[in-house]
Amino acid sequence: MDGHDTGSRRTDGSAEGAELTLEFARRLSEAGPSRLGEAAQATVERLHALVTALRPTSDEFRIAIDFLTEVGHYADARRQEWVLLADVLGVSSLVEDLNTRRPAGATPNTVAGPFYRSDVPETAQGASISRDGKGEPLAVTGRIVDLDGQGVAGATVEVWHANADGRYENQEPDRQPEFNLRGRFRTDLQGRFRFATIKPRGYALPSDGPVGRLVTTLGLRLERPAHIHFRVSADGFETLTTHVYDEADPAIGRDAIFGVKPELMGRYRVLPPDGGPRRHALDLTLVLCPPPAERARIQGRL
Ligand SMILES: [Fe+2]
Q1: Domain boundary residue among 55, 73, 96?
Q2: How many domains does the chain have?
Q3: Measured between alpha carbons, how far is residue 119 from residues 116, 122, 123 in Å?
Q4: Are the C-beta atoms of 129 and 196 separated by less than 8 Å?
Q5: Which of 225, 227, 199 lies closest to 138, judged by CA?
Q6: If you measure from the C-alpha of residue 228 to the centroid of ligand 1, how many angstroms do you get, rounded to a whole number?
Q7: Which pLDDT score is estimated for 227?
Q8: Residue 90 domain-assigned?
Q9: Of 38, 124, 217, 231, whose CB is crowded by the most CB atoms within 10 A?
């Protein structure tokens, strides 16, 4: 149907868009309700509205299709370009936020990212996780507490971070020792843990694929500010997966995956010189909350 020669009818294409949207909904309704149908309907409604608003030319539409095709070609078992696309559009962080809402005072969850390993052996309190000794020394002390500020004893604290060049151990297995900058600690009776490591550096997301090219073409950045990843699990609490960022990193306000939150700022202190490289210290507190079912039960009782 041509929207440009119909006299009194609207000529901006919105009538055609609305008709298509209704027709799609009518066909879906014949198939009966389902979650997939609900998602398809919501997606198609918004796609039709988007196309109507943007009115892409055929060439522009082909460029968009070519881009999505290239994203698919870049994705394989080692590299997930689709996840990268979701990350840089803020979708991954939004899905994480919506699925892991926590009560006030609890440390927010963030995405785990692609570099987590679950097979790191337990590490003794105070031990160094820098297995190659490269970088500026960093002493981390921390405490795992509940919503009342009471220490959580026996919690498992998994930690992983990039090296001083912004690279993870499993990105360059030939250059870094196995489990470099990874540890697994158990909190003491007061919920405390501590370890030695090196100060991590921020890094950039891959720029060599279609997603990196898109971000760069848009004039946006691929940088991630320096951070340390944590995963904390303990009986009776919801597992927390989060980052602690270096609040002094110049990229702190433009994390490419939109993961920075005020509660996740870490303040690194420079320690007095001892003749060697610059040394740093970081003290942090991570607050756990009960699992969702337990929270609902407590709320129902109030
Ligand atoms: Fe990371």
Answers
A1: 55
A2: 2
A3: 9, 9, 12
A4: yes
A5: 199
A6: 7
A7: 98
A8: yes
A9: 231
Ligand 1 center to 276 CA (angstroms): 27
Q: Are strands 192-198 and 137-145 parallel, antiparallel or unpaired?
A: antiparallel
CA distances from 89 to 65, 214, 257, 261 (A): 17, 11, 7, 17
10 and 102 together in one domain? no
Q: Are residues 47 and 188 in the same domain?
A: no
My answer on whether 44 and 116 are in the same domain is no
Centroid of ligand 1 to alpha carbon of 224 (angstroms)? 8
CA distances (Å), 38 to each of 19, 24, 35, in order? 18, 12, 5
Q: 116: CA distance to ligand 1 center in Å?
A: 9
Give tens-digit pLDDT for 132-161. 999 999 999 999 999 999 999 999 999 999
- What per-residue confidence (pLDDT) applies to 277? 87
Whole-number Å distance between alpha carbons of 107 and 246: 16
- The CA-to-CA distance between both ends of the chain, in Å, stands at 59
Q: What's the CA angle centered on 278, arms 271 and 170, to 5 degrees? A: 110
Domain identity same for 172 and 292: yes
Q: Mean pLDDT of all residues in the chain? A: 92
Residue 11, pLDDT > 70, answer no
pLDDT at residue 2 is higher than 80: no
What is the Å distance from ligand 1's center to 52 Cα? Answer: 38
Q: How far is the CA of 191 from the centre of ligand 1 (A)?
A: 25
Residue 11: domain span: 1-55
